[in-house]
Amino acid sequence: MVDQRKPSRYIYLPPDAVKRQAELIRNGVYDLLPDEILWRDRYTSLLERGYRLRPRYHPDWRPSWTGTNLNPEFCEDAVVSDNPDVLDAVRESDGLRVAMKAVKKEGQEIQISQFLSSLQHRTNHCVPIVDAFRDPLDPFRTIMVMEYLRLWDDPELATVGDAVDFVTQMLEGLAFLHNQRVAHRDIAPQNVMMDGRALYPQGHHPVWRNRSPDAIEDLVPLARMDHPVKYYYIDFGLSVRFSPDQSSLVVGDVGRDAEVPELSSTVPYDAFKADIYALGNLFDKELAQKYHRLEFLQRIVNSMKQRQPASRPTASQLVTMFQETRKTLDAAEFRWRLAPKSEPVYERFINDTVAVAKNSISQLRRFVRPE
Q: Helix axis angle, 160-179 relative to 271-283, nearest 10°?
């Protein structure tokens, strides 16, 4: 069915602004950036492989607003990728949105990623790899094709239940990882993502993630509590896979989280225990320190952030510990709003009141069915 909606008036520019935009185009302001040119040069080869990049990266691309009064802020092909190392694409065979990354051909990242992705298990929270092939621009690199994901906190967690589910999945995922004798070694907020399709059933733009696929309309996500998402660990560029009888001791002050106390380029330390600290630090900074009503996390955070690595529980032990913690929570608590600690008291009162009203309406709708 053809969409008969007329474009919103705000996507058009007045005559003087149209002239300015024409001048900007002539001056190359909207030209591809150097990293984008590399993806443009891969366009045809990737299409032959079955993956279509956005129109911006077509070899013959010119701004779609050229010679029109369209505002480029609402033109999809004006959107520049926010990560030069990774680019979104669509798999032609089924329309699946994917993300592509050029990695070393024989590097550990592709090997470990493919190994973990091949393992089918409910608690596997490692980014799914859907394809891998030679980089058409560099025979020593591989294009790794992953399922498209978005950052775990975009949109932000909204309820206590959201936080509980996030912690549960991350602990289960780390236990799975360690049970496969793989240490991530770079656990940080930037390396945790989610499959957010459940929150945006009509889709969203891959870069302007809070806009519609055509980058015109603002979107409001559905609630995680009613539309659960799955979280994933990504970026195994620093990871290590140990053989069954191999020591898990490593050296290297690597990774985004420089606060792991034992990191050293000379003194060996347990890579698994370092992962435990890094994840505990994430829980602490991104959840416990940031929101009210998450005091129940403190016990597990404290155990994960023990200064002495040997004192920290294993990932499997943490899964069990948190299962016991969940049993102490009342089901009604899961729908409590996550109130930022930075929020003034009067704002918190108002926002809590609104949240209770919205939740009551949502619950009522579950029992009321239109005739």
A: 170
DSSP string, 211-237: B-TTS-SB--PPPTTTS--EEEE---T
Spell out where the chain has E strands: 51-52, 86-91, 97-104, 129-135, 138-147, 150-151, 182-183, 192-195, 230-233, 240-241, 249-250, 269-270
Q: What are the tens digits of pLDDT across the range 188-235?
A: 999 999 999 999 999 999 999 999 999 999 999 999 999 999 999 999
> Whole-angstrom Cα distance, residue 256 to residue 285?
14
> Across the chain, which distance is largest between two alpha carbons, in Å?
72
Which residues does 243 contact at the CB level (< 8 Å), separation at least 6? Answer: 181
Q: How far apart are CA 326 and CA 352, in angstroms?
A: 23
pLDDT in tens, 252-285: 998 999 999 999 999 999 999 999 999 999 999 9
The fold adopted by the segment(s) 150-335 is Transferase(Phosphotransferase); domain 1 (1.10.510)
Phi, psi of 193 (to 5 degrees): -135, 180
Structure tokens at 1: 């069915």
Q: Which residues contact 130 (CB under 8 A, 6 or more apart)?
A: 91, 96, 98, 145, 146, 147
Among 130, 65, 63, smallest CA distance to 95 is for: 130
42 SS3 class: helix
To which CATH superfamily is domain 97-147 assigned? Phosphorylase Kinase; domain 1 (3.30.200.20)
Given phi > 0 = left and psi -120 to 50 = alpha, else beta, which region is 67?
left
CB 165 within 8 A of CB 326: no
Q: CB count, 10 Å around CB of 306?
A: 16
β-pairing, 192-195 vs 230-233, is antiparallel
* pTM flag (> 0.70): yes
